[in-house]
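Thread: quick sanity check before group meeting

JM: Hey all, I'm pulling together slides for Thursday and realized we never actually wrote out the predicted structure for the chain we discussed last week. Dropping the sequence here so it's in one place. If anyone has concerns about the input, flag it before I start.
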Amino acid sequence: MIGATYRLQFRAGITFDTAAALAPHLKAAGITHLYASPIFEAAKGSTHGYDVTDHTAFAQELGGAAGFARMSAALKAAGIGLILDIVPNHMAASPENPWWWDVLKHGEESRFAHHFDIDWTAQKLILPILGKPYGQALQDGDLALDGDTLTAPGHTLPLAPGTGEEGTAEGDVHTVHERQHYRLAHWRIGRDGLTYRRFFEITGLVGVRVEEGAVFDDLHALVRELTADGRVDGLRVDHVDGLTDPADTLKRLSAMGVPVFVEKILEGAEALPDGWPVDGTTGYEFIAALAALYTDEAGLAALNAAYAALGDPDLAAEVRAAKDTMVSHNLAAEVERLVALAKAALASNLFARDFGPGTLRDGVKALLTALPVYRTYVRPGETPSSVDAAIIKGMVEAARAQLEEPDVANALAGLFTAPGPAAAAFTARFQQTSGPVMAKAVEDTAFFRHHAALGLNEVGGGHDGPFGTGPLQKVGRETGLAATQTHDTKRGEDARARLYALTDPDLAARFAAIWPTMPGNIPQKLRWAFTQMLYASFDGSADFADRFAATALKTVREAKEETSWTAQNAPFEAAVEAAARQMVAEHHRLAPMEPGLRAGAIIGCGQALGKTFTRRTPDIYQGTFGWDFAMVDPDNRRPVDFEAEFGRLSRGTPLADLVAHWQTGAIKARCLHEGLLARGARPALFEDGDFAVDRVGPDGSVAVLTRTLGREAAVLALPVRPARDLSGEGLGVFLPEPLVLALPTAMRPVFAQDDQRLTAVDLAAAFAAFPVFFAVSWG
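JM (edit): ok, ran it. Output follows.
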């Protein structure tokens, strides 16, 4: 059983030997499994490893096979398992990738030609790698022949056998180029001229046809070996929604005999498809549940009302606008591919063959925009599940309302259940495209445009409810990881906790008075957003101004309004950077928000302990045993001081000192550590015990979580509106009156100076001394 995971981001100086040295610390902390980011060979300079170049080789920069062996031995010696993050959907479209090199050299005759999702009906394999149009690059001498290779700035490409005999005299480069299986092109053509499936809008990542048995076997040869000999104990599947047939691929992976977790964003009440042989998700919905628990509806309403004077308070409207941008511009290549597939699939349909490319394009765009989830999971030749059928019906109805020719929506959706390979090809590609449309529109556009309450703008979240304990009750019944931060979250878990506290009505009013006073010649809605960001993340570090300025620039580029990554508005960006630095210099203006920092710390302790209590597998992101106020990536992937992190885990510090010096983060580390140790002492209770959650106290300001299994029990009480009842200083929470909670059995409070045996507890007294109450059954 996977009890608790510690996510380690390899690269950026973190190697297999780094992980080996951490093994005893992980053991002492109560961690059962190291959860590793991708560890196979990746593109040179990769900071994350998701751009794999060789799935069958350990990354040399991490220590290669020998380094992995040392790490594996150290983990085994400490009793720590290993979960691998694998990337079956895509690989680096780079000459460093031996499979891709072979395809560039031999074209469709390559052994690996059909390992990648390439449109071989196209005239050429388009490579959008040039910094200028091809003709200009040729004229400027950017292209050259070197033996049996063709060079371009930053790239060395193979020549097809027998195509380089023309020599290297002036003019021959173009002749040789035209004989290749590929065609070099300006990078901007990637938006609408690609001939291979890419990952999202990243042309440097090419889709892999892992649904084919031979491709699956080639891709997972090393993974299969590692799971078979016990060196790998679990798998995390990246971007499961990109796979042609997730159910079949997951079945093949689960046959390796280890638990499988999927990176899957669930919208609202959405659940994983029935029958997937997995142990759950990586936990985005757990973050959303905590947001619902800790968000004060009254303060949120005040923030939304104030923000309405600056920007559109309707997130759904922002998402629709962002989806329009995606399907019309950023992902236009994917739309054009769908149009071509639809035209071929409808050619034999006498009622639909008259639809021209323009009508089909409008239909495809309308359906992609109307889909309310990341994707459906219809398999060729099978009847859609009742869930998918309902989603498709709603999608068609919404799309019809947008179209001048509404019947095209029905014709296109009809292909989901139509027979034949052409319909199957359209269905597969549509389902692989809808996820990127949703992700890029919501996570990477709307969340950077809509700033009312930034704590809710999180992967898997962004909704305005439901509030209360319902979402937490739901995730408490599910398997999967209980995450509060990942490498893809928009901000650190404790920055988010401060933002939850901001929805307290008093703090919301303080914020409304402060943000207009912040400096900077930028639009008001950006001053609002940057003020929230500064409040959430300011940590006093020497490099904070540089990091904050970089985050501000990323915010406006991702928003794609005044500037973007591909069309940068230099004067506007200069103003944004200047404003960000001015704000940091004048962060003292935020002094009236100090109660929010303390309330955020209380929430941070609660969510850290809560994730050890709620699901079977709490997930701890590197560096988060202390406070983590990170901003959006790459800020949340900075190097970690592991000595300092694990040095916080001493249980000898008096509780009063932890409270008095809460700024150090030791109090959060203690909360998280005690939760992990309690799980280790009573694994059956926390993995299989009945789970319940309720709201008690004035206005439901306390959440009570309970686990019971036979005579064993655990109780966790959390103040979920701490800003209302803060003491004058420190982290004391003073409820307005006694609140006596009956306990399910005789219990020992974990955060007490001496052993006690309680059958009831006055939470008002407990919270005055320590910001959470945690008790386990006696003995």
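AS: nice. The chain has a mean pLDDT of 95. DSSP finds 28 helices and 23 strands in the chain.
JM: adding both to the slides.
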